[in-house]
């Protein structure tokens, strides 16, 4: 168990006031009213005491910590306070030296607590804190997140926080105790036979047929075929043979995932040496989660195989129809002559036989032959489903094992025939007599299959099996049936916080941006809708870029917003001032600034310090993965470390969690630079996907016109308005909207500040996403393709003014929302508390027949219409969205330049390693942005010091994503002794010429 919760940098971030405190924070926590001024000046004649009292008041409001002499107070805070109490601070005035008497500090602290209701923590408060920690410890593994949760809860109660070391100890003790209790509970449930099976699984080398060591179990094949399906079925059967099935539903989804991830990252020999009481419970959870993952893969493999076979049959059918058409119409000139004769005779009332003779048709034999051949070919035509019979042998290679493994249930009566049909096929496969029972259900068969399944009053066994598998595929896709033992295809209810826990949760509306009752929600949304409709009516004639045409609102396109002065300044700085550098030199220098390599410790050497020689290997492996060059080419380019050394580093040090932590260090320094204040507030973001082709067969890869003839996947990145990437995920193409929620919420976990507005393109658009985003506390603002044709919705009692009556509005069905309002809140609360991922929720909401989905869609339509009314009437909002998405596009351009190896294609089929490469790329991109930002800031300071003042408002148009001055190719040398020192910087180009 790890003993360190927070690094020194994280602890400093929580316990001290940031020196880059924003003006908004000053106005929020340091803007004093009349009562504050009266309390500050009353009885405090001395300037030092007045400032000290005010500083303590600010300190308690801002952090809720006791003020100490170690607290860092920015000079801008002191000056802002002095200005409000009509005082001026002497230039040489040292606040800490003057305000340091313990008695005075304690007296002021007690006076403030008495006046403003702050209080010290008592036993009840400590019990409440322990309960919050215990509740979170059951759900999440991230202990830093738990610390922030407890701090937020105590702040709400106006409790003066204890020392951070005290809170750390609470979290440490409770989490360790919870983990120990969990281990004891699972270990006590194991029988001697199960313990023997676990030992057998640990010692298994995976060399015998159908035997697998622990890590081999998760190695899924890249190409989906009936043969690869059987390989996965072998793994599932091996897991079942261990007989480790037990009820782990009391352990949260995230907790099980994190424990399983620990086993994934541990070496086999390390597992063998661990004590049974500590390692066996983790092995049970790991195997449990692995089986769920493999079962999901089985379901998706069946979907993919059936889809491929259907496509083959459709193409074959299209080819047959084309050939038959050519044969029928090979005598096209004769058919035209006959058609002309018929037309002429009907119009002019002439004899048809006479007209045919004129066109050299003395007999009708030629026409009879054409008609006869046409009927023959028409009768021989078959549809694509009938042609699927030729692929039945491929289906039979895996279908018996699929039906043996898959156990489906459903609460819907409509799905009962399908469930019974699956059971019938399973029993048929297990029996010696491969014959369907006479009472096999048929109600689940789709209409397009009926004529093939039922022939001459009998059931065709082949088509019945194929039709049942097709119906099962659609039912699973639409969440109409539940797959027992699955992760993705469980019933929705099992993914959420249970109703009883939710009912007694007191922080629901502290966490969510919602209302306790549906009536309150409806009243607020109606009021907002009326305001926006009135604004549209009042300004429709004043907005020169908005007009109504054919029932739709139309907009003129936005022009460019980057002034020429900004482009000239950017060119001057990046081409004439910022020094040129190699990529490995940038990595070394940024590591000297923030020390992000400290997170890449070998998994078996926790709490150790990374040696300089190891740093070189880490940076080399990081660059090899991020640039997609690969470890072999990197070892050859360096000529210093072998492939085996770099491979060991990549496997044992570079995982997705560590890369995200390292990224957080880089991001925090970037946010602290004054130049980043011109790019945005750091609370808006955008997301965009970049297609990546795959050089090998991969489960993630699928056909996409943008990839040409190759299959590929998508790297979906989230970019803050300050240009850094804070969330990266490798996903399947065309599923971007499912990952928006997880990406947005990840920002607060990384930097401690939530995103309040998020922009996407059409690929990230979804109606349910609008409703959930509003409840989760951020505004969802997509730039939708053909926005003028999007449906707008209003409430039934909304009255439109005459000048906007021409706009076509549909009605919102609020009854759906009313019936499911509490359930929607529970879903949002479950996501926010980390009990279930947003991706899983959004994927399950794809079932269009679900009543719950309909309710969320109706709520989303309310929020979408409110957004679109703002979008149509606010040029500023459209500009913000455009700028945000342009930052994402520029980020993709930088990614393409950095990921130059292997033509930017993935060379690995493993999804986890693909994710590591994508995260390594994002870390390198953030490192480049930080390095550019530092030298951009130094360049501006140089210009102001040696030339003249510049218009700093132009800086918001200058991006740190420029890479023209960076060299990516060549011989790489990561020798840190040759790089600059910790507090040293390169000379600017203009400084070198002096």
From TrEMBL:
Matches recorded under InterPro entries: DUF4158 (IPR025296), Tn3-like_transpos (IPR047653), Tn3_Tnp_DDE_dom (IPR002513)
Pfam family, one: DDE_Tnp_Tn3
Keywords: DNA recombination, DNA-binding, Transposition
GO biological process: DNA transposition
UniProt feature coiled coil, ranges: none
Domain of life according to the entry: Bacteria
Domain DUF4158: 5-172
Residue ranges occupied by any Tn3 transposase DDE domain in the UniProt entry: 585-972
GO molecular function, one term: transposase activity
Keyword DNA-binding: yes
The family this protein is said to belong to: Belongs to the transposase 7 family.
NCBIfam families with a match to the protein in the record: transpos_Tn3
Protein name: Transposase
Organism from which the protein derives: Phocaeicola coprocola DSM 17136
């Amino acid at each position: 168990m790890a003993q360190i919760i927070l690094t020194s940098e994280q602890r400093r971030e929580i316990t001290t006031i940031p020196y880059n405190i924003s003006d908004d924070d000053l106005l929020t926590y340091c803007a004093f009213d009349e009562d504050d001024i009266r309390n500050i000046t009353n009885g405090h004649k001395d300037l030092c005491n007045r400032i000290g009292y005010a500083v303590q008041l600010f300190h308690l409001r801002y952090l809720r910590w006791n003020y100490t002499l170690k607290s860092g107070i920015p000079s801008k805070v002191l000056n802002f306070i002095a200005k409000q109490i009509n005082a001026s601070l002497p230039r040489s005035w040292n606040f800490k030296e003057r305000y340091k008497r313990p008695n005075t500090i304690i007296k002021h602290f007690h006076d403030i607590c008495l006046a403003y209701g702050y209080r010290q923590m008592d036993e009840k408060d400590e019990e409440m804190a322990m309960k919050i920690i215990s509740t979170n410890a059951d759900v999440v593994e991230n202990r830093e997140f738990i610390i922030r949760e407890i701090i937020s809860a105590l702040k709400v109660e106006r409790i003066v926080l204890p020392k951070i070391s005290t809170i750390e100890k609470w979290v440490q003790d409770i989490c360790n105790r919870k983990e120990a209790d969990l281990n004891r509970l699972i270990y006590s449930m194991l029988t001697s036979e199960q313990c023997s099976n676990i030992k057998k699984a640990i010692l298994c080398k995976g060399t015998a047929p159908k035997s697998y060591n622990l890590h081999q179990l998760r190695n899924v094949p890249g190409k989906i075929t009936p043969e690869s399906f059987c390989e996965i079925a072998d793994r599932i059967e091996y897991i079942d043979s261990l007989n480790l099935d037990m009820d782990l539903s009391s352990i949260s989804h995230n907790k099980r995932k994190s424990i399983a991830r620990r086993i994934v990252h541990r070496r086999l020999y390390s597992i063998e040496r661990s004590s049974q009481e500590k390692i066996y419970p983790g092995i049970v959870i790991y195997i449990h989660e692995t089986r769920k993952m493999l079962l999901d893969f089985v379901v998706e493999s069946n979907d993919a195989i059936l889809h491929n076979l259907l496509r083959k049959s459709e193409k074959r059918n299209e080819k047959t129809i084309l050939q038959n058409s050519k044969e029928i119409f090979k005598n096209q000139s004769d058919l035209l002559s006959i058609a002309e004769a018929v037309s002429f005779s009907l119009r002019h009332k002439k004899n048809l036989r006479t007209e045919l003779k004129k066109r050299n048709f003395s007999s009708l034999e030629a026409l009879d032959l054409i008609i006869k051949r046409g009927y023959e070919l028409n009768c021989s035509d078959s549809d694509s489903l009938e042609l699927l019979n030729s692929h039945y042998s491929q289906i039979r290679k895996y279908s018996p094992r699929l039906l043996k493994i898959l156990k489906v249930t459903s609460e819907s009566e409509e799905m009962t025939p399908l469930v019974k049909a699956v059971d019938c096929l399973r029993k048929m496969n297990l029996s010696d007599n491969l014959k369907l029972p006479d009472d096999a259900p048929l109600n689940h068969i789709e209409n397009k299959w009926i004529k093939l399944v039922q022939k001459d009053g009998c059931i065709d066994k082949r088509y019945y099996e194929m039709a049942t598998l097709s119906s099962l595929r659609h039912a699973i896709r639409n969440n109409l049936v539940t797959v027992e033992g699955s992760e993705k295809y469980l019933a929705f209810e099992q993914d959420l916080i249970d109703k009883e826990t939710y009912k007694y949760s007191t922080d629901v509306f502290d966490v969510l941006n919602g209302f306790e009752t549906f009536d309150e929600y409806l009243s607020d949304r109606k009021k907002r809708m009326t305001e926006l409709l009135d604004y549209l009516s009042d300004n429709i004639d004043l907005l020169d870029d908005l007009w109504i045409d054919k029932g739709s609102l139309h907009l003129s396109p936005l022009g460019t917003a980057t002034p020429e002065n900004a482009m000239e300044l950017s060119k001057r700085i990046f081409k004439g001032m910022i020094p040129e550098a190699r990529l490995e030199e940038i990595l070394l220098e940024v590591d000297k600034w923030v020390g992000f390599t400290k997170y890449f410790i070998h998994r078996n050497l926790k709490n150790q310090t990374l040696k300089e020689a190891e740093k070189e290997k880490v940076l080399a492996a990081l660059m090899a993965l991020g640039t997609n060059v690969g470890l072999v080419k990197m070892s050859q380019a360096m000529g210093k470390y072998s492939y085996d050394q770099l491979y060991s580093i990549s496997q044992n040090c570079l995982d997705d969690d560590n890369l995200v932590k390292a990224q957080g260090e880089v991001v925090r320094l970037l946010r602290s630079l004054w130049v980043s204040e011109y790019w945005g507030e750091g609370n808006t973001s955008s997301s965009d996907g970049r297609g990546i082709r795959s050089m090998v067969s991969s489960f993630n890869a699928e056909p996409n016109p943008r990839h040409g003839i190759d299959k590929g996947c998508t790297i979906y990145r989230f970019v803050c308005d300050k240009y850094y990437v804070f969330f990266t995920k490798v996903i399947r193409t065309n599923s971007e909207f499912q990952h928006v929620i997880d990406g947005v919420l990840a920002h607060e976990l990384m930097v401690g500040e939530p995103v309040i507005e998020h922009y996407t393109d059409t690929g990230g658009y979804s109606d349910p996403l609008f409703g959930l985003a509003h409840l989760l506390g951020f505004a969802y603002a997509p730039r939708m393709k053909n926005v003028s044709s999007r449906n707008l919705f209003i409430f039934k009692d909304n009255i439109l003014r005459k000048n906007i009556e021409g706009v076509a509005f549909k009605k919102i069905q609020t009854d759906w929302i009313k019936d499911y309002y509490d359930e929607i809140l529970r879903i949002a609360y479950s996501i926010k508390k980390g009990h279930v991922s947003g991706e899983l929720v959004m994927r399950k909401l794809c079932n269009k027949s679900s009543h719950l989905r309909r309710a969320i869609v109706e709520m989303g339509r309310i929020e979408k219409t409110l957004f679109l009314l703002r979008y149509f009437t606010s040029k500023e909002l459209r500009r913000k969205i455009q700028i945000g998405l342009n930052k994402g596009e520029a980020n993709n351009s930088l990614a393409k330049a950095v990921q130059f190896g292997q033509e930017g294609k993935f060379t690995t089929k493993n999804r986890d390693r693909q994710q590591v490469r994508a995260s390594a790329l994002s870390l390198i991109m953030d490192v480049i942005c930080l390095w550019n930002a530092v030298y951009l800031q130094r360049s501006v300071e140089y210009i102001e010091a040696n030339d003249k003042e510049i218009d700093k408002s132009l800086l918001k148009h200058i991006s740190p994503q420029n890479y023209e001055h960076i060299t990516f190719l060549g011989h790489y040398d990561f020798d840190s002794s040759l790089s600059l020192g910790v507090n040293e910087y390169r000379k600017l180009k203009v400084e070198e010429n002096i």
